[in-house]
Design a protein that fits this description.
The protein is of the alpha/beta class. The chain has 3 domains: about 110 residues, Nucleotidyltransferase, domain 5 (2-Layer Sandwich), CATH 3.30.420; about 180 residues, Nucleotidyltransferase, domain 5 (2-Layer Sandwich), CATH 3.30.420.150; about 200 residues, Hypothetical protein af1432 (Orthogonal Bundle). Helices cover about 55% and strands about 20% of the residues. It is built from 23 helices and 14 strands. The chain has a 6-stranded mixed sheet with strand order 8-7-6-9-11-10, with helices on both faces. Strands 3-2-1-4-5 form a 5-stranded mixed sheet, with helices on both faces. Strands 12-13-14 form a 3-stranded mixed sheet, covered by helices on one side. A hairpin with a 2-residue loop joins strand 7 and strand 8. Helix 6 packs across helix 12, helix 11 packs across helix 12 and helix 15 crosses helix 21. The relative contact order is 0.08.
């Protein structure tokens, strides 16, 4: 049975739409449309979207609606990136689009974008090596480290070519300072990242972006020979030296490229040259990875049997890297996460939560004590703050709020109406927090000694409730005392009594 899927990407310079037929494991592209719109120029110049631009977007989306109806597509996913995310009137834009077109727009974080791109790069490259990927955008650029296991690290850079151009114009510099302005701006973004990326054994560098494709087009025409499939540093430096003093008009005529591309090519050149120098890379291999097509592929991948397990593994790796960067107790965190998931799986028929909630628990359990890096006192509150400060590639803002609140309430306190972060969540999300926090409390109580003494955990039941049977190395009293002080939330929420049976392992 086939499914017609529509993906809409509302970018900084254009609104793109892909319509595809999904049959089994195959994706057949039926329609691919793009319409220019100056969203980025509005946001990066004035901080908000002009009414005329909003109206233009709505007209484009209404036209796209007609195309969707022709293909009888009802499965619609629409995402927006930097230009919408940073606009002061983004909520007005989203509401106007919803009310006039019926299309729900989700604003993607930089990390979500990096995740989609890294997943597609991973599929295309098919290597076990640790690699770096770079996506040059109009508003922001994404830099990521990935392997066969998925995204390991990402950084969002405030060096989109359109945004840098608008910043230069706002500062009213004379044109002769344009190359120096770009070089300084890019250097200020990249230099602080050197220590982080030095932690990874990066073997290759890959790139994507329309401006990079345009640079490759120019190089192939200027230097001749076999058509290039990658950018070579020495050729980029030569090209930059030749054209860095050109005006947009001169670039348009002498390079024979579109005016829009001419506006961004110098900024793109500066960015990619400094990036390659940072990684000591002589070559940048290019891939065409439009965000809409990445999202389309991801939507289809999510339906596969192996996706859930692979995603959980990726989440585990990513959140552990966050913890390692902050010098957390990795062994304790991993053990609490393991126990939490065991309890979650054993009590599915009681809590009735699914794969998404299991992943929230995995992240919250791994980072529940991350607040210790600030102070042991009130560490649960610090954990909430640190989690909220992260840009997770796997979770949207509400999901991140759930995870942060689960970490916040993993000890003994309960949510109150005076807690703004909890009350800001929807009612279903608040209930999810309570359920997951009750499970995390039990897991953390069993690892109270932080010595990983629990070897096995099993579950049984009798007429009075659930019996949790643990095999451990320490005196039963210490575990029972900790467990009995932390089980109340589960019992109150689900109305089921918990009992602990300890079987002490003899060594």
């Amino acid at each position: 049975m086939s499914d017609i899927i529509t993906v809409i990407d509302i970018g900084s310079s254009a609104i793109r739409m892909c319509i595809a037929e999904h049959i089994g494991k195959k994706i057949n592209l039926l329609e691919n449309l793009s319409h220019p719109v100056p969203l980025g120029k509005d946001t990066f110049r004035n901080g908000r979207l002009a009414r005329e631009t909003i109206n233009s977007c709505i007209e484009i989306l209404l036209d796209y609606r007609k195309v969707m109806q022709m293909f009888r597509s009802r499965n619609i996913t629409a995402c927006a990136t930097t230009a919408i995310r940073e606009a002061a009137n983004r909520d007005i834009f989203i509401d106007n689009v919803r009310s006039q077109t019926g299309i729900e727009v989700e604003v993607y974080s930089p990390a979500q974008t990096a995740f989609l791109l890294s997943e597609q790069l991973k599929k295309k490259i098919k290597t076990n090596q640790c690699s770096a990927g770079f996506s040059l955008g109009a508003g922001r650029s994404e830099l990521m480290v990935f392997s066969k296991d998925g995204l390991l690290y990402n950084a969002s850079l405030d060096i989109g070519f359109m945004k840098m151009n608008q910043a230069f114009r706002r500062n009213r510099y004379t044109e002769e300072y344009y190359p120096a302005f770009l070089e300084t701006t890019v250097d200020n973004e990249l230099r602080p990242l050197l220590p982080e990326f030095a932690k990874f054994a990066i073997q290759s560098l890959y790139g994507t972006g329309q401006e990079l494709d345009e640079i490759l087009f120019v190089l192939n025409r200027r230097f001749g020979g076999e058509p290039r499939k990658s950018l070579v540093l020495k050729e980029l430096v030569k090209l930059y030296g030749e054209i860095k003093g050109f005006s947009t008009e001169e670039l348009f005529h002498k390079l024979q490229i579109s005016y829009d591309k001419a506006e961004g090519i110098i900024a793109a050149l500066v960015t990619v040259i400094q990036l390659m120098r940072m990684f000591k890379a002589s070559e940048l291999k290019l891939f065409s990875l439009p965000l809409g097509e990445c999202l389309l592929s991801n939507l289809v991948t999510r339906k596969s049997e192996n996706y859930t397990a692979g995603l959980a593994k990726g989440i585990s790796r990513y959140v552990e890297n966050i913890g390692i960067a902050l010098s957390f107790d990795a062994v304790h965190a991993q053990h609490v996460a393991l126990l939490s998931l065991q309890i979650f799986d054993a009590t599915r028929q009681i809590h009735l939560m699914g794969h998404n909630e299991r992943n929230y628990l995995l992240a919250a359990a791994t980072l529940h004590d991350i607040g210790n890096v600030i102070a042991t006192r009130a560490r649960h509150k610090h954990s909430q703050y640190i989690v909220n400060a992260q840009d997770f590639p796997f979770f949207n803002d509400e999901e991140k709020g759930i995870i942060a609140n689960v970490a916040r309430y993993h000890r003994n306190s309960l949510p109150k109406k005076t807690h703004p972060e909890f009350m800001a969540l929807s009612h279903p999300a608040r209930m999810t927090v309570m359920k997951l926090a009750s499970l995390l409390r039990i897991a953390d109580s069993l690892e109270n000694s932080q010595r990983q003494n629990i070897r096995k955990i099993r579950f049984d039941c009798d007429e009075s409730g659930i019996i949790i049977i643990v095999d451990c190395l320490e005196e039963p009293f210490s575990i029972e005392n900790s467990f009995n002080s932390r089980k109340d939330l589960f019992e109150d929420f689900f109305g089921i009594k918990l009992k602990l049976a300890v079987e002490r392992t003899r060594t």
